[in-house]
Amino acid sequence: MSPPDDLVRAVEATLFAAEEPMTAEAISTHLGDADVKAALAELCAHYEGRGVRLVERGRRWQFQTAPDLAHLLRRERMDVRRLSRAATEVLAIVAYHEPVSRAEIEAIRGVQTAKGTLDVLLEAGWVRVAGRREVPGRPVIYATTPDFLSHFGLASRRDLPGIDELRAAGLLDPVDDDLVAEELERGTDREPATGESADSD
Amino acid sequence: MSPPDDLVRAVEATLFAAEEPMTAEAISTHLGDADVKAALAELCAHYEGRGVRLVERGRRWQFQTAPDLAHLLRRERMDVRRLSRAATEVLAIVAYHEPVSRAEIEAIRGVQTAKGTLDVLLEAGWVRVAGRREVPGRPVIYATTPDFLSHFGLASRRDLPGIDELRAAGLLDPVDDDLVAEELERGTDREPATGESADSD
Amino acid sequence: MSVDFAGSELSGAASAPDGSDDWSVAATAEERDDALYLELDGWEGPLDLLLDLARRQKVDLRGISILELVDQYLTYIERAEALRLELAADYLVMAAWLAYLKSALLLPKEEQEDPSPEELALRLQLRLQRLGAMREAAARLMARDRLGRDVFARGAPEGLRVDRRNRWQCDWYSLVQAYGQVKARTQPVVHLVRERAVMTLDSALSRVSAMLGVNLDWMELRDFLPPHAEPQLRRSALASSFVAALELARTGKAELAQDETFGPLRLKAVRA
């Protein structure tokens, strides 16, 4: 490949530095009325097949990322995070009591529930808004989703162990008071930011 | 010329699209932990002699227009702020002596440095606070930023004009009168008559 | 500013600058008319002025004549004063120092104190070199191909965006355990107060008065307590019996005596 001549280099640099697409006339004016057609054609050919293309859109020229590489401009990164204690409790309450309003969740948990806690469950796709309860204030009510069942390997909500089974498994035994106090602290609205992320990894 | 491989194209597109210079590590992360060293080297070579260059500034890579085309690209509106003479001197002192305290800057210049002078450099993003010196009073110390290197086209501080000669001449040594006395002794020992060789290297 | 430096005659070895000294050559030294020298705003302090004067000697900074420099500076200050120009204190302090230095340099060597005038001169010379070097470096820095002036980044980068998304994790056991803990936590709490062995005031009152009735002599309070009671009951009985004794004394049915503070408390029935 022969090195580009000065005009080609100048057109290349001009378009690279331009803040907006430029017409051939504008480029030409910028470069002291040089005839830039051949230079544009040469640049087009040069960038063919590279990661960047020189393209003409509505008579204006610009560099842009090659179409097949467009996915590089916007990437998604998945962070795997463990559900916080508070969110797990709320999820369990929704699963056992659905459909259930936020006020009801709080009454069952005995602590205030941060708004972010339900948002996390909605984002995870395990809880959905199931309408509104037809009582004064028409509170939003929540229920679990099919994704919830499949994630936890349940055929239906009836597969969740009943109260008697929980008692038999010792899961209803009173827990250490200090531990509970600690859990409550983490679960309340007072620390919405850390409440959700404290035990994420 | 063989067409660039997919990784080279991806690195090319990424750096074209990036709003900020990127380290090799950042490019690699963006591209799913690919090893980008060889691709960067290939791109560097490819753009050599073109209107646009791939350059490394403070370990960060960026495309920019070729310096010899400056006369074609200079705009009416100057993006570059005009620095006062005091500010340029302070900037040079920070760059050549970093990290350096304000008192040390003043010792070199022989005048007090207006607060605004350092502020201008901090605001421009060329100088940053680099902590405190662990001496009585714990003065704030200053150093240059990667943006400083980018702006002045330096691959690293080793590229600062004349820095090796200045260091060899002892002109970048800490300002310390005891040291001067020592130098004088060494100088006079060797050439007792003149003391001319105090700046021995 | 500090005045811990001064100069001395070091120019005896008028140095021939070699190639490596390019950077210290006074590139910005301008040929200026002497008259212009009285523009006070032109200098950033006395060191700046000294550097400019030194460069007018047109030799490498290492070869400047400090005596000549001192003379030029003093002349400058004198002329400024003659013209009644406002001089910053810095300039006058420097002038005083340089005058002192000049006299020291002209005195015979034996009478010199420490630090010697030669050392002071070297310090001044080094300071001028340092400042000159930085001024030169600044000029070279500013003349580089600067981003946004000489070279340009991409004008309209598309930008890279990374959208972070969370994938949440939780397992069946954690879920069920969490529900169990919610239930356990919110179960109604029943408070049980266990029965404790106590002697009520009433029973103490009847016990103490009954025992007083059959005794004529003084008895110690502790003799009224049930003999084989467990410690907890015994404490309760002591407290109740003490209050009972006070009550009996108040109603005139008993006498109380205590020989010393914290000594044994004794009781005796009052015979009507």
From TrEMBL, chains A, B:
InterPro entries (alphabetical): ScpB_csome_segregation (IPR005234), WH-like_DNA-bd_sf (IPR036388), WH_DNA-bd_sf (IPR036390)
Signal peptide region: none
One Pfam family, short name: SMC_ScpB
UniProt biased composition (Basic and acidic residues): 183-193
Keywords, comma-separated and alphabetical: Cell cycle, Cell division, Chromosome partition, Cytoplasm
Protein name per its UniProtKB record: Segregation and condensation protein B
UniProt cross-references to SUPFAM superfamilies, sorted A to Z: Winged helix' DNA-binding domain (SSF46785)
Region Disordered: start-end pairs: 180-201
GO biological process: cell division; chromosome separation
Automatic annotation (TrEMBL), chain C:
Region Disordered, annotated ranges: 1-23
Domain of life: Bacteria
Any matching Pfam family: SMC_ScpA
InterPro entries in UniProt: ScpA (IPR003768)
Protein name: Segregation and condensation protein A
Organism the protein comes from: Novosphingobium marinum
